[in-house]
Design goal:
Elements (H helix, E strand, L loop, with lengths): L1 H10 L8 H36 L15 H56 L8 H12 L1
Helix pairs in contact: 1-2, 1-3, 2-3
């Protein structure tokens, strides 16, 4: 439960990157967090399987009168553990989606800046008033215009 709470705090972060490279770094870190969550999932399954011997109706051989834990309390804790894990998985999916959306936004800004630079470059070429003084410079300017 403590490990899950620690990971949950990381998943609740409002940092979705301040530029494209930052978002890509956050996505890589998030992949590591998802790997940690998968490891926790295996541990949760193990705990659930181990808890079955305390919940079951049949007592262990030689221990008919002794119950080490109240089956209801064990069931409640197992349910609490499974719900916490399910919430963690849900938060991880939501954070990944938000990071992917942030990446799309920053990629859009990056592409727009690149297009603006190309337009400015073309404007600069087209705004020159040079029309050529002889046949050679006219041909040179025409070839530049085609490019």
């Amino acid at each position: 439960m403590d490990s899950m709470e620690e990971i949950k705090m990381r998943l609740l972060s409002d940092d979705y990157g301040k530029h494209l490279m930052g978002v890509e770094d956050l996505l890589q870190k998030h992949s590591l967090v998802e790997a940690d969550i998968n490891v926790l999932g295996d541990r949760v399954k193990s705990v659930v399987q181990n808890s079955q011997r305390f919940i079951g109706e049949e007592p262990e051989p030689g221990m008919e009168a002794f119950k080490p834990a109240d089956p209801t309390a064990v069931m409640e804790r197992v349910t609490q553990l499974e719900e916490a894990y399910a919430e963690l998985v849900k938060l991880a999916v939501e954070r990944r989606n938000r990071l992917e959306e942030s990446k799309k936004l920053w990629q859009f800004y990056w592409d727009m800046a690149e297009e603006e630079n190309i337009i400015k470059e073309k404007e600069n070429i087209l705004s020159q008033g040079d029309i050529g003084h002889d046949l050679t410079t006219v041909h040179l300017l025409l070839s530049k215009q085609k490019v």
